[in-house]
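Need a sequence for this fold. Nothing fancy.
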């Protein structure tokens, strides 16, 4: 199986590459632009493997993408390249439009051109898997789950750009027949996540004894999915998913943000004790603009049709994640020192 992965140096992308190369035995070509969040160190364990290749390219560069596809001749494309951080999208929405919308369009056109020229049997077997987010559905009430039929209602520039890319993929499947599938996952966490996201940011700021910012009242709820469980689910959808379908992927692990931060603090108290409990660093700050109150999805379809189930509980997954960051300072220290120091992002500028 030859699988082209876009964004494979990112957090979820690198987990997918690890799974495909080491567990599934697939031949993988990873195309990544290597933005601030793309880290070659995340792929050190597979870099020397005979079934892994890397090409530095922007999915918005149609000629480069077409050339990579033509030379590799993939049987599947797993599209994970994206700008993903909501806070960054608030202050720098243009990059999200360029990559998530225009980049997806360029990739779709390159994939369609390649797929159209394949022999009939290879056309039928080809799959384009587009990886997206549950944030396209917007905020839920205190009860109920978003299903694959829930109306899109994005709240941030990030989620709006992903909703737009989802619509493009659906249109290319319906109009041109490109055999595409879409997945929408809940919040991911785990090893090798760029430390701007809640869990790694909390870990590293706590280690530095810096304030741990919690937005608003901290009662916003997310369903937390371990990235390695997500990687397994994506490949199962690539194997067993139905063309033209959307699959929600979540772990049924809803937690309030304040409880996640407090949980990290409690784990650090045990693994890296300090003079004062880490929870004393928690500070409530002004909420993020457009912050969804609760995101929660129904994963019954992917469970029913692929047999996937999450293996990691949130409690064990969170403890293992904290332990990974404590043991892998060589991975995160260059990012912390040279790329992002842990300051707050996503604050709207105001004028008097």
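Here you go.
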């Amino acid at each position: 199986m030859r699988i082209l992965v876009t964004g494979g140096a990112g957090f979820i992308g690198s987990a997918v590459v690890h799974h495909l190369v080491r567990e599934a035995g697939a031949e993988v070509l990873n195309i990544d632009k290597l933005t601030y969040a793309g880290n070659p160190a995340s792929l050190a364990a597979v870099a020397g493997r005979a079934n892994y290749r890397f090409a530095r390219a922007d999915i918005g560069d149609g000629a480069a993408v077409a050339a990579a596809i033509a030379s590799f001749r993939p049987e599947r494309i797993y599209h994970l390249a994206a700008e993903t951080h909501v806070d960054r999208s608030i202050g720098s929405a243009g990059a999200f439009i360029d990559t998530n919308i225009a980049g997806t369009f360029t990739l779709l056109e390159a994939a369609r051109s390649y797929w159209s020229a394949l022999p009939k049997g290879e056309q039928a077997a080809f799959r384009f898997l587009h990886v997206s987010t549950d944030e396209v559905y917007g905020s839920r009430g205190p009860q109920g789950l978003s299903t694959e039929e829930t109306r899109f209602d994005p709240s941030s520039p990030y989620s709006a750009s992903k909703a737009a890319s989802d619509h493009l993929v659906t249109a290319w499947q319906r109009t041109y027949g490109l055999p595409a599938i879409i997945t929408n996952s809940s919040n991911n966490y785990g090893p090798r996540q760029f430390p701007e996201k809640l869990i790694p940011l909390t870990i590293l700021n706590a280690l530095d004894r810096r304030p741990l910012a919690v937005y608003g009242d901290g009662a916003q709820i997310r369903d937390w999915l371990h990235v390695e469980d997500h990687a397994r689910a994506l490949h199962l959808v690539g194997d067993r998913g139905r063309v033209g379908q959307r699959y929600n992927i979540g772990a049924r692990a809803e937690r309030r943000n304040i409880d996640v931060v407090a949980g990290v603090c409690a784990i650090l108290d045990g693994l890296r004790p300090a003079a004062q409990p880490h929870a004393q660093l928690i500070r409530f700050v002004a909420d993020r603009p457009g912050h969804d109150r609760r995101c929660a999805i129904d994963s019954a379809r992917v469970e029913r049709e692929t047999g996937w189930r999450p293996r990691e509980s949130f409690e064990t997954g969170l403890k293992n994640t904290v332990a990974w960051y404590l043991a892998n300072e060589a991975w995160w220290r260059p990012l912390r020192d040279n790329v992002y120091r842990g300051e707050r992002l996503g604050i709207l500028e105001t004028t008097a």
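For context: The CA atoms of residues 137 and 150 lie 7 Å apart.
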